[in-house]
Amino acid sequence: ALRALSFDLLGRPPLEAERTQWLGRSRDELVAEWLGSREAWTQWVEEQLYYFLLIDNFRPENERVDALPGLLAAGRLDVRSAIHRITLSPSFDQRNPGADTFVTVVMEQLNGIRVQKSVRELDVGKQIYDGRPGTFLGKSGATQSDLLRIAIEDRSFAQTFLAREYRRIVRAEPDKTRFADEVRRFQRDPGEFRAIFAGWFASAEWEARVRSRVTAPNRLWIQALYVDLLGRPPQADEARRLRTALDGLSDTGPLRSVLARVLIDSGAVKVPEKATISDPTAWVAGLFKRLFGREASAEELREFVTAFHDPACRPQTVLYALVTHPEYQTY
To answer: Which residue segment(s) compose the domain that 231 sits in?
Structure first.
């Protein structure tokens, strides 16, 4: 579960030194530690930007958004206020130009309201967007800023946001009774999100998700490939270039395989010479633990070690087989 936990909170697998350091520590301890780190909240902000499609040319570039990870890690800002800052950024307005598009996105993405069934609210929202007073979601407003504040303070935001985050982490629908309690806690005090969020990782539902595994989105797969092969996360431009290429495809499998091959053959990946691997079984077993986050079965070890002893097989061949394996595409 360590690899999955690191994916969910840090957006990447553990580095080798981190893996050694973190193994044996309790999940609760790691979650508490990471939720006090800037890295975990940087990843959380990245997920929010991706949700709102504020990426590439629409990525916010201002101090108020850049400051979010540090403020969230220090507990000086809550997640509702962070979302508010993101939606107040010029990038959000540019990404959703015009009254109709802007209010539609606000209603659907922030409040979970289908505009086709709430035409009146849409019309009032557009009225407020244009600077004319109106009552939106039961509260008065007269500016675009008012519109966002009303939407984010409404209970429907708490419901929509928590459900979206739960599905992102647990990949399932939340229990109705427990979810209603979490919505009440969040609406009363958005600062409760950290405790609510941490609780999901202690749940049987998250453990079930880890056992069943889910496909890693392109942005996480890229992070994993670089950490696992190069021992470092990709630079921002490297990640953006590869994500853009992969996101444009309906079937990313072939290109993922090509990218893995290019990276392994680049000479930048530290792979031991075959003659220096005195215990192929232990070497292969270590790769399974590091890349799949689990022990290799006896049959898997037998197959890979047999292949390793083939004179034509290089260590790079074994590594390539693992990082292009269907299981590596999941976490």
So the answer is: 218-264
- Concatenate the DSSP letters of all residues of 243-275 into one string: HHHHHT-S--HHHHHHHHHHHHTTS-S----GG
Q: What is the pLDDT of residue 281?
A: 98
Residue where a domain terminates, one of 133, 153, 173: 153
CA angle 20, 290, 246 (to 5 degrees): 130
What is the reported pLDDT for 26? 96
- Tell me how far apart the alpha carbons of residues 318 and 285 are, in angstroms, rounded to a whole number: 12
CA gap 190, 25 in Å, rounded: 29
Nearest 10 degrees: Cα torsion 124, 126, 131, 137: 40
Q: What is the pLDDT of residue 177?
A: 97
Cα–Cα distances in angstroms (integers) from residue 196 to residues 32, 184, 320, 324, in the given order? 12, 11, 39, 36
**Residue in the block written with tokens 């629908």:** 173
Cα–Cα distance, 174 to 189 (Å, whole number):
20
Q: Is 91 among the domain residues? A: no
